[in-house]
Amino acid sequence: MASMCEATTRVLPGAAIIELSGEVDGSAATVLTDAYAQAVTPDSDPSTVVLDFSAVDYINSTGIALIVSVLARARAERRKVVASGLSPHYREIFDITRLSDFIELFPDLDDAVSQLTGPAA
Amino acid sequence: MTQVARPAPGRPRKLDAFELPSEPGNERLALARVAESVQGLGLSDSRLEKLKTAVAEATMNAIEHGNGNRAEIPVEVEVTQNGDEIIIAISDQGGEASGEASGKTGPAEEPDLLKKLDGGQSPRGWGLFLIRNMVDAMDITTNGQRHTIWLTMRTGGAAHGEHV
Lengths: 121, 164
What we know:
Chain A is built from five helices and five strands, in the order ββαβαβααβα. Chain A is of the alpha/beta class. Chain A has a single domain, classed as Transcription Regulator spoIIAA. In chain A, strands 1-2-3-4-5 form a five-stranded mixed sheet, sandwiched between helices. Chain B is of the alpha+beta class. Chain B has one domain: Histidine kinase-like ATPase, C-terminal domain (Heat Shock Protein 90, 2-Layer Sandwich). Helix content of chain B is 33%, strand content 24%. In chain B, strands 1-2-3-5-4 form a five-stranded antiparallel sheet. In chain B, strand 4 and strand 5 form a beta hairpin. Chain B is globular. Classes of the chains: A alpha/beta (121), B alpha+beta (164).
């Protein structure tokens, strides 16, 4: 099944940003893994990984599992994960699954970036 | 003013019935069609989103665990209104195999995020947990090979954890 998920990455001082769009489901596994590998390198070595969901319109249980895997990997590497741009429905799912206990949620990417790097970034 | 269709209590009204090939991704078709069939029944936007998630997850289970991703075996979906309840029945032909996947014939381990993060549980296994938390009631029946998950959503009220 072709993935309906796309990811773009960029690196700021101290933070790697993964902007997702489309559908985060089982078919997004490679996209997410590749995006993480691109954003988190020995050179960038970010203390925080930002997952931006502003352009995501669907997340299912398999997508939640992928997010759990990203979080597990980041924790093992002693990195923090934050998320931005979740709709109210998916914010609630992050609460129900307790992902929001481990992933700080921001309303949008600008909020997340300014919190992490300061307003001048 | 929005008109809300309310049949007399005790007289169920079938809103839609359809089949889908058991192919990964077809849960999106199920949620779109169910959303269309319950339009105008008075579900709030947030409760409609919950219902859509529950329908998608139940359909995914039916496609994957029930019918083994065999496209030629359809997943059947029926949408009924009974008073202020919307009832969605999603059926596959997985019999006991579906029961095991759904925890009906054996204890399905409750997802524990900390265990998942520490490698003590698979990262997967959220489907049934999500369904239970999205709708007002969930029931599972197995009759021979036919395995059905029943989702009930009231047009008023609040699902688990929802504040109104």
